[in-house]
Amino acid sequence: MIYDSSLGNNTSFEGAYWINLSANNPAGGNGSSCEFVVVDAAPEAPVVTTDSTSYAVGSTVTVSWNAVENNQFYWTNVYRNGEMIYDSSMGNDTSFTLTNVQAGNYVVLLSANNPMGGNGSSCSFIVNAVTPGDIDSNGTVTILDALLALRMGMGMLPVANLEVADMNGDGAVTVIDALMIMRLTMGTA
User: Alpha-carbon distance 84 to 107, whole Å?
Assistant: First the structure.
């Protein structure tokens, strides 16, 4: 069968198709095949998130989103203070990581795309120009910062400025962080 006219002209049906083409003669036939997918709509916009809205300079930021149907590829743009710093196709991955981020206001734009178009969404976060260990935000790491971290680590104070006080990056303020801040003030870090 060369063409099935019952499908009509300019008609497509959403779904996956397989085509087999064979050339035959009395001695036999050789064939080849291909597969293709027909979609009738652009994919839905993914929901983009980060694990926080505020980070310290030098942090690692993981941006993730939900997988959407009918997506062929995701496209990502990252802006810092209005200037594009990242522009890339992400394939079908559902996350990427920015390392050693610098101070500024970040906006991440992400779109899901296929031949019918694309839909996007965004998220934003701030990277604060802070000094690790400077819990009281006075611009200098002092013994007072180590004492504040110690009290937070012992549960005597609520955790404040986690991105500054969490010196070892384990997501909590502990006595180890207080010790690291103490060593920093003594110049032995």
Answer: 9
